[in-house]
Amino acid sequence: MQTRTLVPLLLALVVLCVPAGTASARVVPTPVTAKDPAGDVRIYQKATGLTRAQRVSVDLRRVTITPRSRSVRFTVRIKAVPRRMPVDQMVFLALAPASGSNPTGRGEVGFSPQKPRLSYAALDSDGTGTAWESCDPMRLKVRRGAGELRLDVPLRCLPVGEVRVKVTSLTGYFRSDAARPWSRDRLRFPAPVVLREAS
Questions:
Q1: How many CA atoms lie within 13 A of 167 on its CB side?
Q2: First to last CA, the chain
Q3: H/E segment holding residue 53
Q4: Is pLDDT above 70 for 136?
Q5: pLDDT band at 101, cuts 50/70/90?
Q6: Which residues pair with 172 in a beta bridge?
Q7: With the CA atoms of 22, 26, 27 and 28 taken in that order, what torsion angle do they form, in degrees rounded to the nearest 10?
Q8: Which residue, 34, 48, 124, is CA-closest to 86?
């Protein structure tokens, strides 16, 4: 997997000063984007039944995080969204506490263009697994021709403070316990991101 680079959509980004030993976090008053190189999808050969074109359709191209007044918009561009797909294209965003920071909780966001009305976000608000905030279901917006998936997540379902953002795309069965995917791609934002500031 090649190193990912963070590309600002606007000319300026607000950078927080954080303690020594941690990377500079990106606050989200302006959009930030992480790009992924084409052609790096991992193919699972033992899983049969999909064409190569269907497997590589989840090749991540870029992910943009955009602030809104009461939500954060996650925009994911993949190689293609076929009109017919025997399984689901899936995208998951893992939001984990950044090393050396003091965020509140950890979160996950999941969606599929084949099941746009079953998108979700879940926040483990204290990091212990005993207190959850759920935004489920939510509706994904799909721009099929552009391979673009867009979901607005309410702030209440996102962690407070600096988080590491990891994005995984897969071919498989969305919101099921089926274990083996047909293909997978990954992308990480190289610097922590602040999706939601403490009030």
A1: 28
A2: 37
A3: helix 52-56
A4: yes
A5: low
A6: 88
A7: -150
A8: 48
Return the bridge partners of 185, or none. Answer: 169
What is the b/e burial string over 104-115, where b = at least 16 CB atoms within 10 angstroms of the residue's CB?
A: bbbbebbbbbbb
Say whether 72 sits in a helix, a strand or coil: strand
Give the number of other CB atoms < 10 A from CB of residue 47: 15
CA distance 165 to 154: 17
Which pair of structure tokens corresponds to residue 147?
């391979």
Distance, C-alpha 176 to centroid of its chain: 19
| Interatomic CA distance for residues 53 and 62, integer angstroms | 19
Q: Which residue has the tokens 């303690």?
A: 19
pTM of the entire predicted model: 0.83
The answer on pLDDT for 27 being more than 90 is: no
In 3-state terms, what secondary structure has residue 146?
Answer: helix
C-alpha distances (whole Å) from 149 to each of 16, 30, 79, 95, 145 are: 29, 19, 11, 18, 11
Q: Which residue has the tokens 């403490």?
A: 198
Residue 194 has which token pair?
């602040």
Q: Give the full edge-to-edge strand order of the sheet including 5-8.
A: 5-8, 32-35, 60-67, 71-78, 148-154, 141-143
